[in-house]
Write a structure and sequence with these properties.
Keywords: Membrane, Transmembrane, Transmembrane helix. Among the domains are: 3-44, no CATH class; 46-105, no CATH class; 161-186 and 205-231, no CATH class. 61% of the residues lie in helices and 5% in strands. It is mainly alpha-helical and 232 residues long.
Length: 232
């Protein structure tokens, strides 16, 4: 129970109730709302330890970094590194935070660190991008999921990229790449200027085009006829 006979409500709500009870002028209400929002944002912001990388705050509090990555995708990290010049940074986003590492030496050190694990992210993303069955998704989410992922990464995937399997994978992927690139080829000597203009292919976003190119050519090689990426 709180002091003075008040209920144990949130500090923000208590402050708003006190200000509202004192006076109800529009200016006071506006100030109370602003103060309440600032206190709410502060209480929801992630805490950063002094040992963590330096914080790069977004231009728009609370949601700035998330919006930037949604709009610019991978290019956002490039723009952020150029703007800050930092080798590593902590990016507060919503109620969590993300570490962005740009320095190659720090990236290599992080990958060598045994405490760094990508398994939780793989377990979260895999069902959405591979079309796994419901029982398989439940198995990944079980206590044995981490061990299953580790065994797949260490014992199932490496043999698939050796010998005849690697040759088949490469041949299939290169055949798909050849088909995609051949679709962009223009006639050597278009009969008319109009035909030449019509034969010109414009790629507005090189990154998206390369993403499509790699997905469209490696997906069938990896998954065969059941390629989940071909459905999108």
């Amino acid at each position: 129970m709180a002091a003075n006979g008040t209920s144990g409500s949130l500090p923000v709500i208590s402050a708003l109730e006190t200000l509202t009870a004192t006076t109800t002028t529009p200016a006071t209400i506006a100030v109370a709302v602003v103060v309440g929002l600032l206190l709410l944002l502060h209480s929801l912001s992630p805490r950063v330890d002094a040992r963590e990388p330096p914080v790069v705050k977004p231009r728009i509090p609370f949601i700035g970094h998330a919006l930037g990555m949604m709009r610019q995708q991978a290019q956002y990290h490039v723009a952020l590194q150029r703007a800050t010049g930092k080798p590593i940074a902590t990016l507060p986003m919503l109620t969590g935070k993300m570490y962005a590492v740009w320095d190659p030496h720090l990236i290599a050190a992080g990958l060598r660190n045994k405490a760094l694990s990508t398994t939780p992210h793989m377990k979260a993303v895999t069902p959405a991008v591979t079309g796994l069955s419901a029982p398989m998704v439940d198995m990944l989410g079980s206590p044995a999921g981490d061990h299953l992922v580790d065994r797949i990464m260490l014992h199932a995937i490496p043999p698939s990229f050796k010998g005849a399997s690697a040759q088949h994978l490469t041949t299939t992927a290169l055949a798909g790449l050849a088909r995609e690139l051949s679709a962009l080829a223009r006639p050597e000597k278009p009969p008319t200027p109009a035909a030449a203009a019509a034969a010109t292919t414009t790629i507005p976003n090189t990154w998206l085009w390369l993403r499509h190119l790699l997905t469209a050519t490696t997906g069938p090689a990896l998954y065969g006829p059941a390629d989940p990426f071909a459905q999108h």
